[in-house]
Specification:
Elements lengths: L1 E8 L5 H8 L8 E8 L9 H9 L7 E4 L5 E2 L3 H11 L5 E7 L5 E2 L16 E4 H4 L10 H12 L5 E10 L7
Length: about 180
């Protein structure tokens, strides 16, 4: 499987740690294409326009897309769990994952969590053909509105949930 990771960068100092969290992908048999766009002046709300430009570079097809902000990281089991979930059900078009914060609190996933302001971009891995022409709105929480719109366009059987916390939210903070 090919996974396109989209990162809008406002904190370039976080990129080495973010890259380190992507290393387990190879062992899980996941081929990565990491697309990075810079918004160092923070001209775009939450980097939404940057993410849309990166998304537009990916041809429609059966590759997967994951938005990973520059303060989040993948748990060491993320890629293995993702690959196992897709292998068990190749017709999936969205996978939602539980996310944890440094304090240990978790943002759980369920069909009810696929709604605006209830899910973070890093919690959803979406097949490119399911994204179609959906784009992130240039608003705060535009990523969750985007996920909600895509989820509403899919039959429930094309969405899977990974209930274990395999994504880290706001993990990378300036020292």
């Amino acid at each position: 499987m090919v996974l396109h990771i989209l990162t809008a960068v406002t904190r370039p100092e976080n990129l080495p740690k973010l890259a380190e969290s992507l290393v387990p992908a190879a062992a899980a048999g996941v081929e990565l294409a990491w697309h990075v766009g810079y918004d160092l002046e923070r001209k775009h709300i939450a980097g939404q326009a940057v993410k849309n430009r990166l998304l537009d570079r990916i041809s429609p097809g059966k590759d997967w897309v994951w938005i990973l902000d520059d303060d989040n990281t993948a748990h060491p089991d993320f890629f293995r769990k993702l690959a196992e979930t897709i292998a068990a059900n190749p017709s999936l078009r969205m996978i939602a994952c539980t996310q944890t914060v440094p304090s240990g609190w978790c943002r759980l996933v369920s069909p009810d969590s696929l709604k605006a302001s209830r899910i973070d971009a890093a919690q959803a891995v979406i097949r490119r053909d399911a994204i179609s022409d959906h784009r992130l709105g240039e608003v705060y929480a535009g990523d969750s509105h985007w996920i909600e719109a895509i989820a509403k366009s899919l039959p429930p059987e094309e969405i899977a949930y990974i209930y274990e916390a395999i994504v880290h939210y706001n993990w990378l903070r300036p020292a």
